[in-house]
Amino acid sequence: MSRQSNRTTDNKKMNSELFTLTYGALVTQLCKDYENDEEVNKQLDKMGYNIGVRLIEDFLARSSVGRCQDFRETADVIAKVAFKMYLGVTPSVTNWSPAGDEFSLVLESNPLVDFVELPDNHNVLIYSNLLCGVLRGALEMVQMAVDVRFAQDTLRGDNVTEIRMKFIKRIEENLPAGDE
Amino acid sequence: MADEALFQFLHSELIQYIYKSGANGETENGKNITKLEAMGFRVGQGLIERFTKETPRFKDELDVMKFICKDFWTCLFKKQIDNLRTNHQGIYVLQDNSFRLLSQLSAGKQYLEHAPKYLAFTCGLVRGGLSDLGLKSVVTAEVAGMPACKFQVMIQKA
């Protein structure tokens, strides 16, 4: 009997599971290496940052989106293009602050936590904190300083996952004096 | 649907982290490789479990190896293993002429010594996958010229 005919597994899905499981292995390793969860959160953020500063190039090259006019447009691009492209989900952009400098990305499902349950002794751990680092790192490369943190997390019993992003400032490029 | 680039970046962060947290030196290098391999093993187990849910039973050992070379590899690295050789006594050599996780590295001889880091996780993946299919094995990798590499699988007879 030929096995070929029965092959129904979706390659793309498989590839995303590779990512999800590898990420899980990483978090497990970090939890082993560090004594408290806050250190793990910090480390995840740092690694995310490193990924973000490199991922932005890949993103700009592939998506061919242009410069964003304002923070609202940035939010839309992150949600509709970037998340879609890399994680296959489209978060909704909500909860704008009146000043328009702060918003939330709300994810119905978070691919990173597909197979995850948090044990009781890890209630400070922000499992998906890598994402915050990625966003921070990527935006820094396009001259935007932002503050990113998790406001809600399904792993801790919330209904949705919510990432809160706050615009801090535009990073000025420091050109050497007289070099225009 | 994580894009492949994301996995590659995560993979290199993983290596960075493992190597930074351990000290340098010959013995430490071995330890780091072991750590990476162990992580891969765990991931390989999880993947194969989900992946073979719908597939019919395997005929024999060779059938399993073909499955690893074709389906498993295609899903993970978007291509098949280029060449599979065996002595029919439990040793298999899987050759990939342009291995995904090495393709970002410069192809010259300069970084050849760093190549093992980039293969350890994958060795674990293969060993983990095989272990869940009932084959105990030892998997090692070697690189002669990047980005080509060979994985050697030695099946341990019970």
Automatic annotation (TrEMBL), chain A:
GO terms for cellular component: endoplasmic reticulum; Golgi apparatus; TRAPP complex. One of its GO terms (biological process) is Golgi vesicle transport. This is Trafficking protein particle complex subunit. Its main location: endoplasmic reticulum. It is found in: Endoplasmic reticulum; Golgi apparatus, cis-Golgi network. The keyword Cell division does not apply. May play a role in vesicular transport from endoplasmic reticulum to Golgi. Gene3D superfamilies: Trafficking protein particle complex subunit 3 (3.30.1380.20). Pfam families: TRAPP (PF04051). Belongs to the TRAPP small subunits family. BET3 subfamily. Homodimer. InterPro entries: Bet3, NO_sig/Golgi_transp_ligand-bd, TRAPP_component. Keywords: Endoplasmic reticulum, ER-Golgi transport, Golgi apparatus, Lipoprotein, Palmitate, Transport. The gene is trappc3.
